[in-house]
Design a protein that fits this description.
alpha+beta; Helix Hairpins; HSP40/DNAj peptide-binding domain; 3 domains; 4-stranded mixed sheet; 3-stranded antiparallel sheet; 27% helix; 25% strand; elongated; binds zinc ion
C-alpha cells in the first residue's frame, strides 16, 4: 500500500520558505487552539493536535526538515519508491512484520502517521525468545501531552492488526471463487480497543506495558505483551528534558538590566518570579519543583531561560534616552 504524502507546511499553514521562528509561532498558535484539554470536540482536536505535532517534529528540526524538503514532489508520483536521500533503514522499519509472517500489526490512534514512521523511523517489532511458548511482544508509540504526564490519564487507544482471514484461512479462495470476506488478500483487518493507563510522571521514551495484548502464544503458551513507547508531544510553552521543563522568557532590555518581577506559566498555574539585576541572555532561573512529578526519579524543576527582545521601533523620546545611555555608559560589549 503506498503511503500518503503529508504536506507538513500545509498542516502548519506556513509557506515552504518560512523561518524557524515562523514555524515555531505557527505551531504554538495551533497547539493552543487544538490542545485536547481545551477543545470542545475532543476527538477531532486530538487528531488535529497529533497532526500539528508531527508536522512540528519534522519542520521544527533543521535536519529532519532538510530531509523532508528533499522528498519534494517526487513523492507524489513515485508512490512508495524511496526518494533520494531517504535511507533504506528508514524503509525497513516501515515494512515491519512479526516473526511468524502471518500477522502484521498497525497502531491506530497512538502515534504518528505511516508517512512519518516511514521517514523518521520509530516502529519496531518485538523479540522472540527461542524455545519459549509465550507469544511475541509488540511495540508501538503513544503520544502523551505534558498535561497528561503531569496528572496521569486513562487513554482509549485502538490497535489495528491484520489477521488471517477466518473464512478462507489465508488461502484467498473459497471453493473456486475469490474469498468474498477478504477480497483475495487472505488477511482481514481487525481493530481492538484498549484503555491505557498513563501514570503521572511518565517520561519521554518510557515504555508502558499492556499485558497480554501482544501476539498469541503457541501450544497453549500465554500471549505476548503490547508495549507503547511514550513520545512526549511538543508543548506550546515548555520544552522537556527528562523531568525538567524549560520556558523561554522574553524580557525588555531594561528588565534584564535592572531586574524585574514577572509572571511565568507552569503546568499548575502561573507563578511570579524575580529576575535579578544584570540578567544575561540564556541565563537560567530555577523554579524548584515545577517540573514533572517524580516516579523513580526525583521531582523535576522548571528552568526559566532569559531572552531579551529589542523594541522594533523607538519613538523620539525613547531615542533620546538610549542616546543618553550610549553617552554615559562605560559598557563595551566587545572588550
Ligand atoms: Zn478470505
Amino acid at each position: 500500500m503506498p503511503v500518503e504524502f503529508k504536506d507538513y507546511y500545509k498542516t502548519l499553514g506556513v509557506p515552504r520558505t518560512a523561518s524557524h521562528d515562523d514555524i515555531r509561532k505557527a505551531f504554538r498558535t495551533l497547539a493552543r487552539q487544538y490542545h485536547p484539554d481545551v477543545a470542545k470536540d475532543k476527538k477531532r482536536a486530538e487528531e488535529k493536535f497529533k497532526e500539528i505535532n508531527e508536522a512540528y517534529e519534522v519542520l521544527g528540526d533543521a535536519e529532519k526538515r532538510e530531509k523532508y524538503d528533499q522528498l519534494g514532489a517526487d513523492w507524489k508520483d513515485g508512490g512508495s519508491r524511496p526518494p533520494p536521500g531517504a535511507s533504506g533503514e528508514a524503509f525497513r522499519t516501515h515494512a515491519w512484520r512479526s516473526g511468524t509472517g502471518a500477522e502484521n500489526f498497525e497502531f491506530g490512534g497512538t502515534g504518528f502517521s505511516d508517512f512519518f514512521e516511514q521517514f523518521f523511523g520509530g516502529r519496531r517489532g518485538g523479540t522472540v525468545q527461542p524455545g519459549t511458548e509465550k507469544g511475541q511482544d509488540v511495540e508501538g508509540v503513544i503520544m502523551v501531552t505534558l498535561e497528561e504526564a503531569m496528572r496521569g490519564a486513562i487513554r482509549p487507544i485502538s490497535v489495528r492488526r491484520n489477521a488471517v482471514c477466518p473464512d478462507c484461512h489465508g488461502s484467498a479462495v473459497q471453493g473456486r471463487r475469490v474469498c468474498p470476506t477478504c477480497g483475495g488478500d487472505g488477511q482481514v483487518s481487525v481493530s481492538r480497543d484498549y484503555k491505557v493507563k498513563i501514570p503521572p510522571g511518565v517520561r519521554d521514551g518510557q515504555r508502558l506495558r499492556v499485558s497480554g495484548q501482544g501476539e498469541p502464544g503457541s501450544a497453549g503458551g500465554p500471549p505476548g505483551d503490547l508495549y507503547l513507547r511514550v513520545r512526549m508531544a511538543s508543548h506550546p510553552d515548555f520544552r522537556v528534558e527528562g523531568g525538567d521543563l524549560y520556558y523561554d522568557l522574553d524580557l525588555a532590555p531594561w528588565e534584564a538590566a535592572l531586574g524585574a518581577s514577572v509572571s511565568v506559566p507552569t503546568l499548575s498555574g502561573p507563578v511570579s518570579i524575580k529576575i535579578p539585576p544584570a540578567t544575561q541572555i540564556g541565563q537560567r532561573l530555577r523554579v524548584r519543583g515545577r517540573g514533572l512529578p517524580g516516579r523513580d526519579s526525583a521531582q523535576g524543576d522548571l528552568y526559566v531561560v532569559a531572552r531579551v527582545q529589542m523594541p522594533k521601533a523607538i519613538g523620539e523620546q525613547e531615542k533620546g534616552l538610549w542616546e543618553q545611555l550610549a553617552r554615559e555608559s562605560h559598557f563595551n560589549p566587545r572588550a
